[in-house]
């Protein structure tokens, strides 16, 4: 795995690194995220969201045969963005309600939506970035202006299939 500290962002921390597209490396992602966000009020939710996004990259994209990139940004202890860039695939991310059947999988993005303030996607079948924004309710201006999206392969951001995503507040 290749890691790099990206420096300071938004009066906080920015980190980016690549991981092999193998489920065995998700533990590395979890441990690293826990260490980087050790003082964050939203650490546990950020870890859960990032693990779901990373698992989706390995299980549902071409990253299974390559690598996926993780990005973590924080501003102080109450604002975090986690993002995963994958190698793309023909299937777009889909949010399932979990009520269709009793399957043991398929609810990852629904979990992310429940925990995050916002969820978004950029890119296409050649590569996507999926991100989740988490924060404690602080009021005031949006802390997300100017936060990078891991340089997506597609410069346009668009809504994912489903309600309450990309630049829309998710009501919990």
Give the arrangement of secondary structure elements.
Layout: E1 2-7, E2 13-20, H1 26-36, H2 43-60, E3 67-75, E4 79-85, H3 108-115, E5 118-124, E6 127-135, E7 157-158
Antiparallel strand pairs: 1-2, 2-3, 3-4, 4-6, 5-6, 5-7
What does this structure look like?
This protein is α+β, with helices and mostly antiparallel strands. It has a single domain (2-158), classed as Heat Shock Protein 90, CATH 3.30.565. It has 3 helices and 7 strands; from the N terminus they run ββααββαβββ. The protein has helices spanning 26-36, 43-60, 108-115; strands at 2-7, 13-20, 67-75, 79-85, 118-124, 127-135, 157-158. It has a 7-stranded antiparallel sheet with strand order 1-2-3-4-6-5-7. Mean pLDDT is 75; it is low at 5-10 and 151-172. This is ATP-binding protein. Residues 19-132 form the Histidine kinase/HSP90-like ATPase domain.
